[in-house]
Design a protein that fits this description.
Elements lengths: L1 H30 L8 E7 L17 H9 L1 E3 L2 E2 L4 H10 L3 H4 L33 H7 L3 E7 L18 E5 L11 H4 L4 E3 L2 E3 L12 H15 L6 E6 L11 H7 L6 H15 L24 H34 L6 E7 L18 H4 L8 H8 L12 H4 L3 E4 L15 E2 L3 H9 L6 E2 L2 E2 L23 E5 L2 E6 L2 E5 L3 E2 L2 E2 L5 E4 L15 H17 L16
Helix pairs in contact: 7-10, 8-10, 9-12
């Protein structure tokens, strides 16, 4: 495997030299940047974290380091992900809607092929195709050192689809969508372990004075990549935490900080988070708190022992986010120590809304510490996910606000003015790649390694750096698992199960004016029927353009390649 890695490194550097020479004139002419001026870039992506979990967005969980990025940079009030783990990652890495990348639904795990729908559905193959280029490939070709620490989840059952083969110089993390935090053992989890480069790791050493924990390991390897990298080159680090995705596991020291704090229950906690969001100016009082999820019982209806259990479930979840924040602080300190902080653009976001998968009141053993830390799917359930989504309704998988809205923060001392007010223009994941390419002085290629690329779909968010409006000229669109939205100005067309394999079901569309009703409580579909029809037609046109269709039925049948 070392020979493979050396060969890969040599070829990557050769491609980088050639591409850098071709792009030099464009870079200098368009942006007048030299190597010393180009910013370093860090994308911090957390997994399954809800809209209100961090302090800057109304949460009670201690996140001072993430909050400091928000306070010193630009914080968006209305930014959208792709509602699920791997579709978000596909868009974040390529600047394209996930269907164009080949990941229209989900990606394949290292040991199975179940999400590959075959050549008849190239938009649903379950891995990144070659009609897209990753940020690692584009920035690497322009002279950036490229590193990934954390979760890949963009194709794992063929090593040609792994990070080193898609533009990254260094990789440490998990190829699959989830892994245990303390013991991500590859043999027991069937390909869900940890890899370094192209080599699965069977022995894992802690990077701290406490037992091995993935959140710590990802941060420390990311820092090591930066410290050991070529100093003359700017770097791109993609730090993709698995936290707080299930299985919910955390160090006892962090859990003890929160144990007992959630005995107030989810009803009171949702109200407190909402009130803080109002105080922060994130929402106005006209944006009403959504009702408690109808599946979730009133906290006061639970027996004391069940309340104790649910308190602990939320404490473990909070501890995971707390640990992420501590690691963000460690990263910031490392950057400052090396004199890199001032010229490093840091982006922070979540891959989807809060996760309500499994039973409403959570699943898995939570009281027995040893068993908890060996669990593979324990979580906190919809009862607490409803809190994480405050003030919205619904969750991961859905394109309503609770599933698709994420905190979004950009911090760059050299290039972004600290802003006291929320940035109000709406944006989404397709805008990240155009933004980074603009600030890095890189032109997006029409082809990469002989493959013609789809053109980028988004716009640059650079105007937000100085509180200027965005230059968006077309609506924003999304689709995942038959759920879909279109946002045009303040109007949002959204539906559950609307994008059927046979075509859009117009009867399932809902319509909201987000300016007055950000929490999607007043459906205006009947009142604004003509507007709904026009927007539905626009969404359908986009769905054909960006390859939502043709769409597999989802029925299990023998696939022909």
């Amino acid at each position: 495997m070392e020979v493979l890695d050396l060969k890969h490194t040599y070829m990557r550097r050769l491609y980088s030299v050639i591409a850098a020479l071709m792009l030099l004139a464009q870079v200098l002419a368009g942006f007048h940047l030299n190597a010393a001026e180009r910013p370093n870039v860090i994308i911090i992506l957390v997994d399954d974290m809800g809209f209100s979990d961090i302090g800057a967005y109304g949460g009670e969980i201690k996140t001072p380091h993430i909050d400091s990025l928000a306070q010193g940079g630009v914080r968006f009030s209305q930014f959208y992900n792709a509602s699920r783990c791997c579709p978000t990652r596909a868009t974040l890495m390529t600047g394209l809607h996930p269907h164009l990348t080949g990941i229209g639904h989900m990606t394949n795990s290292p040991n199975n092929n179940k999400f590959d729908k075959g050549k008849a559905f190239p938009n649903y193959r379950g891995f990144l195709n070659r009609q897209c280029a990753t940020l690692g490939e584009v920035l690497g070709s322009a002279g950036y050192s490229t590193y990934l620490a954390g979760k890949w989840h963009l194709g794992g059952n063929d090593q040609s689809r792994w990070p080193l083969q898609r533009g990254f110089d260094k990789f440490y993390g998990c190829i699959a969508g989830s892994t245990r935090y303390f013991s991500p053992d590859e043999d027991e989890r069937e390909g869900r372990g940890i890899s370094s480069g192209n080599e699965p790791q069977t022995t894992l050493e802690s990077t701290t004075d406490r037992p091995y924990y993935t959140t710590d390991a990802f941060t420390d390897h990311g820092i090591k990549f930066i410290e050991q990298g070529e100093k003359e080159n700017p770097f791109f680090l993609y730090l993709a935490y698995t936290a707080p995705h299930w299985p919910h596991q955390a160090h006892e020291e962090e859990i003890d900080k929160y144990r007992g704090k959630y005995r107030i229950g989810w009803d009171q906690l949702r109200l407190e988070r909402y009130q803080r969001q109002i105080e922060l100016g994130l929402f106005e009082e006209k944006h009403r708190l959504s009702p408690r999820d109808s599946k979730v019982p009133a906290w006061t209806s639970l027996k004391p022992e069940k309340q104790k259990e649910m308190d602990l479930r939320m404490a473990v979840y909070a501890a995971m986010i707390d640990r992420v924040d501590q690691n963000v602080g460690k990263l910031i300190n490392a950057l400052k120590k090396q004199g890199l902080f001032e010229n490093t653009l840091i982006l922070f976001m979540s891959d989807n809304g809060a996760c309500a998968e499994g039973p409403t009141l959570g699943r898995g053993n939570i009281f027995d510490v040893e068993k908890r830390n060996l669990e593979t799917n324990n979580n906190y359930g919809a009862a607490w996910a409803n809190v994480s989504s405050t003030p919205f309704r619904l969750y991961k998988h859905y394109t309503h606000e609770g599933g698709s809205a994420t905190p979004f923060i950009m911090h760059w001392p050299k290039g972004i003015k600290s802003q006291s007010n929320w940035y109000r223009d709406s944006a989404q994941l397709i805008d990240v790649v155009p933004t980074l390419l603009e600030v890095c002085g890189v032109k997006y290629p029409e082809t990469y390694q002989g493959h013609e690329l789809y053109p980028l779909r988004g716009i640059s968010l650079a105007p937000s750096f100085s509180s200027e409006p965005l230059m968006r000229t077309r609506p924003m669109f999304s689709e995942h698992e038959n759920n879909a939205f279109m946002i045009d100005g303040s109007w949002k067309l959204v539906g559950k199960g609307v994008a059927t394999p046979q075509g859009p079901d117009i009867g399932k569309w809902e319509l909201y004016n987000l300016k007055d009703d950000r929490t999607e409580l007043k459906n205006l579909a009947k009142k604004e029927n003509q507007r709904l029809k026009e927007m539905a037609d626009s969404w359908h046109a986009w769905s054909l353009e960006d390859k939502v269709y043709p769409k597999p039925s989802g029925k299990k049948k023998k696939r022909k390649n």
